[in-house]
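TEACHING EXERCISE
Course module: macromolecular assemblies
Task: Read the component lines below, then compare them to the predicted structure of the full complex.
Student: A.B.
Group: 4
Components provided:
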Amino acid sequence: MKVYVWKHSGNSYKLRVLLALIGVEYEEVMVNFRMHEHKSADYRKINPRGQVPAIVDGEMVLWDSAACLVYIARKFGGKQWLPSAPAPMAEVMNWVSLAGNEMLYGLQYARRGLTRGICSAGTVEQMQVNGRIALDVVEARLATQDWLALGHPTIADIACFPYVETAPEGGMPLAPYPRITAWLARCKALPQWPARWQT
Amino acid sequence: MKVYVWKHSGNSYKLRVLLALIGVEYEEVMVNFRMHEHKSADYRKINPRGQVPAIVDGEMVLWDSAACLVYIARKFGGKQWLPSAPAPMAEVMNWVSLAGNEMLYGLQYARRGLTRGICSAGTVEQMQVNGRIALDVVEARLATQDWLALGHPTIADIACFPYVETAPEGGMPLAPYPRITAWLARCKALPQWPARWQT
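Instructor-supplied answer key:
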């Protein structure tokens, strides 16, 4: 299985985490954004959106981070990371979707605006409004649960972790969110939790 | 099962379609956006994001459209709409995620900008760039397949339908996308396909 990533990509880091926690062997392919490899014709045959991550496993091609998480969890992770029964599966998907919506188009894009000056999805202030909705929802959830779904670690936590952790770089400090701060530490304390790529 | 919707919401329409195609009985609760009911304290107890749709089924609460589609498909739809095996499930999720990403933050928000003057996620032109990525990916896919995933109708098609159909209202005419135009017609020809709410 080839896993296409970029070392600065939070969406790529989600896959790195899940693969490490489960202990899956795979071939990592670094797609160099600085060299614009993600927009090359060859890479677009794998991922027509021109983004990372992507997975190629035999004839199967996946080009969305949530779909990749679902695939890894279901193929290698037994029932722990994403159960197949309707209610628990949907409970996990609530958070996986939040990660691709208010977290990406809020926490992450505010950060990209502040650190790289790219504001292609609204002003930094507009993205911070979105991002704080996500942080508020997570903080409220953690008032009664240690993990986002099902009472144990799932891909809900892994999908949300990367851009929540870097929220302060988007001008949203986590000091007002003590439960989130504790949850980030719990995640990182899981056995085999991997660091981000060295940059 | 209570399903919270708003008649102008494309994300709500996704649930209306899937529930009708499968033939599920449910209680529809209209959340009046014009009266700001989606931002009320009572409704936020159900959906802390302050959006539609949401589902309450016994003790289970879902507040994301993709999670709601997953729940309905898995609980009532057998294997057709979302299989549980890793590869086909992930193939469907590629498109469900695209619907919540480039389609919502592209096709739909460009439309909202043009029709209601709300540009909270970038300029209309920026959103159209995003939207055209989605349309190009769908058009390319339909060159070899009649349906977005697995060779038959799934929640991939249902998740993508609403905002693709209304793309022209966002300044992205569908005339350059003949395969999309044919696919929209195929979707609407499915038995029990429901119209949008009368407005």
